From TrEMBL:
Signal peptide interval: none
Source domain of life: Bacteria
Pfam families: CCG (PF02754)
InterPro entries found in the cross-reference section: Cys_rich_dom
A Gene Ontology molecular function term of the record: oxidoreductase activity
Entry GO terms, CC: cytosol
Name of protein: Cysteine-rich domain protein
Length: 248
């Protein structure tokens, strides 16, 4: 299957290993990857902050970029996928009906990585192996906004040797919330502190998530507390073959 890969800003700039492993995983599952170089930021930070007018040029660039073919578009971040799926409404509010129609066609093709693997490819076991105990963090964008709850769990439950541990208040936000963590830093700090306390209570070796931004937030707190818990994106986990490789 031909697939467009949308790298996202954070994966491109901060977590290149997530992008690399996402592409390798899709190729392993039989996909042929197209990377359209004109792709840019989805505009999520500006949109979340209310600067819709300023975000429109970048949004139009992204729509134009992915109009060149009709392949599915896969991204390793639910927050970006959710932002793009809301493009049509933003364009309508801006009085740009033609762009809203074009954006809808592109938005309909966007998928989170785990959603695509489970629901489009029909795969729940990718042959990964990773011994140890882990906590899965369900990001708000993925679980609440996109409704993708069971798909990441199904993939992780089929990782040989991996035991998923429940924690208290597992569904609670980690406190990142995009610009929320900047505008409400003290509240955000307390939220991630509580999240880390619950993670440490069960003493896992790994913290796994499907949104890089949440993992950066929780991972930062874990690091500041000297924790030995290794933070991994689900794409990195699904490419493991029995021992941890460099996922930087």
């Amino acid at each position: 299957m031909n697939v467009n890969f949308y790298v996202t800003c954070i994966a491109d700039v901060v977590k290149s290993g997530v992008a690399k492993n996402s592409v390798l995983l899709l190729e392993k599952l039989g996909c042929t990857i197209t990377f359209l170089e004109k792709q840019g930021c989805c505009g999520q930070p500006a949109l979340n902050s209310g600067y819709v007018k300023q975000a429109l040029p970048g949004m139009k660039n992204l729509v134009e970029t992915f109009e060149v073919n009709d392949y599915p578009i896969v991204a390793p971040a639910g927050s970006c996928v959710y932002a793009i799926k809301n493009y049509p409404e933003y364009f309508k509010r801006a009085g740009e009906a033609d762009w809203a129609t074009r954006a809808q066609k592109v938005a309909d093709r966007f998928c989170d990585l785990t959603d695509f693997i489970v629901n489009r490819l029909g795969i729940t076991n990718v042959g990964a192996k990773l011994p140890g105990k882990a906590v899965y963090h369900p990001s708000c964008s993925l679980s609440r906004k996109l409704g993708i709850v069971k798909e990441p769990i199904a993939l992780l439950e089929n990782v040989e040797g991996l035991e998923l541990l429940p924690i208290a208040n597992q569904q609670t936000c980690c406190g990142f919330g995009g610009t929320f963590s900047v505008k409400m830093a003290e509240i955000s700090g307390e939220m991630v502190k509580e999240k880390v306390e619950h993670i440490e209570e069960v003493q896992p070796q790994y913290l796994i998530g499907a949104d890089v931004s949440c993992l950066l937030n929780i991972g930062g707190r874990l690091a500041r507390e000297g924790s030995a818990v290794k933070v991994m994106h689900i794409a990195e986990v699904l490419m493991q073959q029995g021992e941890i490789k460099d996922v930087a």
